[in-house]
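User: Hey, my collaborator sent me this sequence without any context and asked if I could get a structure. I don't really work with proteins. Can you help?
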Amino acid sequence: MLRFALLLITTLVAAPLFAAGYADNPAAQAVIAELVEEEGFDAESLNAILADAERQESILKAIARPAEKTKPWYDYRKIFVTEKRENQGVEFYNEHREALLRAETELGVPAEIIVAIIGVETYYGRITGSYHVLDALSTLAFDYPKRSPFFTSELKHFLILTRDQNVDPRDPKGSYAGAMGYGQFMPSSYRHYAIDFDGDGKTDIWNNPVDAIGSVANYFKAHGWRTGQPVVSAAVLAEGVDLEVFESGLKPELTLAQLKDKGVTAYRNLPEDTPVTPLAFEGAAGWEYWLGLHNFYVITRYNHSAMYAMSVYQLSQNLARRFAQ
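Assistant: No problem. I've predicted the 3D structure and written it out in structure-token form, which is a compact way to encode the shape of the chain:
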């Protein structure tokens, strides 16, 4: 019994030497050194912050199986294009109509697109994530080699952001990837595109839906949204068309004239020099074929997934019909 008690005391005394934090991680020390030199941070404070960052195994499991890579379109669509999400989108629009219409006027992005983004991302602010952002970004920066450079950069942006916003970096919560607030901005996007849309002197997309509305619209404007232009067109296929053309990525690089030579035309009446992205989705009743236009590509800048962009677009169209009633 005495031997067990001594072992327990020894373990408790030694525990701090084996803390779960990242302060002693060489890559974390490199981040600290860069922030001290480039941004004027205090090294001791950063060491204390990263000592509190904890590795989360559930984050590593989650990032290895995103829905865009594991679900076919007919299942993926059912998550986001639903009557419940549509009804709550109408409620969000009615509550924030003034800010949404102002975003349309000042930034040129339709209210239904802004509402659809916030609806798909967080159920209109209801589900913004339960992971501590510090844990998420540290775990992915230092224990996910595949994308370590990206998440290391985002961790640096997060530490700068929370300092500038006078927020304890241990407090904010978000997604397993470190996305935050109503629109699930990554820290770099928060710093570059979030705006103070209600004029209160603060840029808060964690808690302020008006700032979130303006920030989502500003993100779309900055990425080249073209006001009044269409997003997609249904594709019309000639018999025997080579379907490999629908594996050409997200960026619209083929013109309608080039696709016509391959047996694919647009249902919409569009100029032949219009660049498009051929898209194929596995629907419940068979494959669906679409042509993504420039604005579709802009939606994919928010999330680099064709299924995500199509979900946002289709939800936005349902919302637009409801807003007009």
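In plain terms: Residues 300 and 308 are 7 Å apart (CA to CA). You can pass these tokens on to your collaborator as they are.
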